[in-house]
């Protein structure tokens, strides 16, 4: 078993070290992660400059390979030239903060896992629901248990993509685990307008909106009720139900 581990908080983040330690003994582990925090970069690839890779030194990151790019860059480079072998599983995380509902579209954590999925490799993204790294060991134990369940029937066949959100609790590993769907958020709050020292306007992206669809069965509902949320994801964005209506409206054939 060969496992590739990446993240979006950067190679120095406690979450990735905890995930690597938790996965020891499951197989050969390669860690290839971004140099800097790249949260919110989604599936961005760096196309306007070359990427460099260096090997980290010192514990607990010794042997990690570091890419000066995005989470997707890290996995893409790993799979298209840096690794001499194709991994059996791609893991991403453990992220500091939830990736649920609409947030998954912006998440670098989910994007790193999705890059593996796009290359035909089973992948799992792990996140803690709250920021601050509280009870990170419990989240890592939960991640280990889920990976072990996935591997119980032998090397996973794929591709498939799971998005896991773990409550920040000391008993996280013993919480119920639910297979959920993505909830939805209200629109984000307005941007925060400030002025820089030169008197020029600057803008900070506003906070995420509150949950709009957080009913039973959603990832929001699961974690709010003390469960680990496991959401299977796919990449097909086609609105299949509307294809016929658009063909009629545009007066064109339905392919």
Structural summary, described in words:
The protein is of the alpha/beta class and 255 residues long. The chain has six helices and 13 strands. The chain has helices at residues 14-22, 71-82, 108-118, 136-151, 219-224, 243-250; strands spanning 2-6, 28-34, 53-55, 65-67, 89-96, 123-128, 161-166, 177-179, 184-185, 192-195, 201-204, 211-213, 228-233. A nine-stranded mixed sheet has the order 3-4-2-1-5-6-7-13-8, sandwiched between helices. Strands 9-12 form a two-stranded antiparallel ribbon. Strands 10-11 form a two-stranded antiparallel sheet. Strand 5 (89-96), helix 3 (108-118) and strand 6 (123-128) form a beta-alpha-beta unit. Helix 1 crosses helix 4 (136-151) and helix 2 packs parallel to helix 3. It is globular, with a radius of gyration of 19 Å. The model has no long low-confidence stretch (mean pLDDT 93).
Give a brief description.
The chain is of the alpha/beta class.
Estimated share of beta-strand residues: 15-25%
In terms of structural class, how would the helical and strand content be classed?
A: alpha/beta
Number of helices: 6
The percentage helix is: 10-25%
Name the shape in a single word: globular
Unreliably modeled segments: none
| Integer-rounded radius of gyration | 19 Å
Separation of the first and last Cα atoms: 41 Å
Strand elements, count: 13
How much is the average pLDDT? Answer: 93
Order of helices and strands: EHEEEHEHEHEEEEEEHEH
Summarize the main sheet: 9 strands, mixed
Q: What's the arrangement of strands in the largest beta sheet? A: 3-4-2-1-5-6-7-13-8
Oligomeric status: single chain
């Amino acid at each position: 078993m060969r496992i590739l581990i990446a993240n979006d908080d950067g190679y120095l983040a406690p979450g990735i070290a905890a995930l690597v330690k938790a996965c020891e003994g499951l197989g050969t582990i390669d860690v290839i992660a971004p140099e800097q925090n790249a949260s919110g970069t989604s599936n961005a690839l760096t196309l306007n400059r070359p990427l460099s890779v260096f090997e980290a030194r010192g514990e607990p990151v010794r042997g990690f390979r570091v890419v000066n790019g995005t989470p997707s860059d890290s996995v893409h480079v790993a799979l298209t030239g840096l690794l001499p072998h194709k991994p059996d599983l791609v893991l991403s995380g453990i992220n500091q903060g939830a990736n649920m509902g609409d947030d998954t579209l912006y998440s670098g954590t989910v994007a790193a896992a999705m890059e593996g999925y796009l290359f035909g490799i089973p992948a799992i993204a792990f996140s803690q629901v709250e920021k601050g790294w509280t009870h990170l060991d419990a989240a890592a134990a939960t991640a280990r248990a889920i990976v072990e369940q996935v591997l119980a029937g032998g090397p996973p066949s794929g591709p498939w993509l799971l998005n896991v959100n773990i409550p920040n609790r000391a008993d996280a590993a013993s919480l119920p685990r639910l297979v959920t769907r993505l909830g939805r958020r209200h629109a984000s709050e307005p941007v925060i307008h400030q002025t820089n020292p030169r008197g020029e306007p600057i803008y900070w992206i506003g906070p995420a909106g509150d949950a709009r669809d957080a009913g039973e069965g959603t990832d929001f509902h699961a974690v709010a009720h003390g469960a680990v949320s496991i959401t299977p994801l796919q990449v097909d964005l086609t609105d299949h139900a509307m294809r016929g209506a658009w063909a009629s409206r545009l007066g064109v054939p339905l392919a």
